[in-house]
Hints:
alpha/beta; single chain; eight-stranded mixed β-sheet; binds ligand NA7
Amino acid sequence: MAQTQNPDTVKTVDAVIVGAGFSGLYMLYRLREAGFSTCVFETGDNVGGTWYWNRYPGARCDVESIYYNYTFSEELLKEWTWSAKYAEQPEILSYINYVADKFDLRKDIQFKARVDSAQFNEEVNRWTIQLNNGQIVSARYFITGVGCLSASNVPKFKGLESFQGEWYHTGRWPHEKVDFSGKRVGIIGTGSSGIQSIPAIAKEAEQLLVFQRTPQYSIPARNVLNDPDYIQQIRENYEEIKKNMRKSLTGIPMEPRNRSALDDTPEERRQLFEAAWEQGGLLSLSYAYNDLAIKPEANETVAEFIRSKIRRIVKNPEVAEKLLPSYFYGTKRPIIDTDYFETYNRDNVTLVDVKSTPIQEITPAGLRTADAEYELDIIVFATGFDAMTGPLFKMDIRGRNGVSLKEKWAGGEQTRTYLGISTAGFPNMFMLTGPESPSVLSNMMVSIEQHVEWVSDCINYMRDHHKGVIEANVEAENAWTKHCREVAEPTLYVKTDSWYMGANIEGKARGFQIYLGGVGPYRQICDDVAEKGYEGFTLQASEESVVNELIQ
Ligand code: NA7
């Protein structure tokens, strides 16, 4: 085990951060600025996290770029200009690289270095981190910046290894361009990744077969290039915008209209939905009324509106019928698209319903469903991720008494955290945008900055107050987990099988893993905890301060 290694070969730092995506990079910046020795380990060979791995055709951000960037540096805000309303993956990746260079972050990042395990050593109150290259590091703090959607899910189809063509998962896309021209391509999955890539692949491939299990609601993104005057106006008002982002529900400065869908006449609703559809974007329809996520009858009004749009756009009525979703709108991740439903009007695109005739196996030549066989040259898995806990469980993280995080959160128990940042029994470990924080139900950039700032303030406080160990109390954790569930319970989210609920992974514990109270209220709760001297945590004096006291 790590503790038996020769201490001379063990690197010692104040903090280890896992992941060089948006959260890991900012965490590194903050800790380094505060004078802590910090080391980031990253599996990939460059920075970017989500935006490094998800390079599939059509990949872009669903949050408007002007809100999806760091806000901590005024200089950076002035220097960077987003070309379009919704930036594409290459532009976001360039931005992350720009940030890494500007703040000279790479010197403290080790690439192609995967953290295999992290174990809390109670004798010395430090974490021992072991990497796949045999390296061992000892750190006071262990911080995970592993993202919520980084453990890709390739369903265990029989026969995949026998497939003679090429296959790719959208979340692990190759760096070289995949050439679809003249190819018969099959894509499995119609979540955000599938819906972004289907129109792009259809333009290149000879034939595209879409294997759809659950039809999805999607509304037009209506992406446009950014006008220089608009950018100037945003720059001039960014302080105000930032304030509004931080106090909003989702980290996007918009609030739901304060009216029930059931208080309007059908014609009033239609006009409102129509305007929202024309506006496009992630929240325009969800925010049209304040009870769409709560009352089934209210939800049905918007669901039926989108179905009517699908019927109108898709020319073949049989295909349109297969594309009509029936779950509660918004209870799976809302999707925005560019020409998704229109793509089914192309001659080279075929929709295959694998709900009624499930995929049975991958064959050397393609794929077999319950009633047909399809010959394919390329299979694209747009089949999503083992969300929230998946990236954490890829590492063997062990806290007090050698108990692993996986064991702690095993069985029907699901996740238990305090504020989604920490978990009892795992001292000095912080999870950036962990389960039970607003994370994926918010603009990740706002949530990341809030978590990173809270964690770095906490570590500074520990140093200033001569504390060496911080650990969430079980009672505080139980209360937080209960609160998270109570907030989610009255909503329609918990009535849908989704990856928010852990329902997309076989054998995974079901439960709503995200804090739904909103980023503004959540920030207030976290700030209050800090102001009260980290209420709900136990803080122990550092060894150095204990020794100093003994000497005096
Ligand atoms: P999602 O949203 O989890 O979508 C995965 C899709 O793959 C979804 O349509 C699934 O159908 C489908 N799927 C998964 N397993 C199978 C099997 N075995 N057979 C057929 N179809 C299957 O992942 P995305 O990558 O699109 O998006 C993830 C997030 O990334 C997104 O929300 C953004 O936040 C960014 P199902 O609906 O489960 O029936």
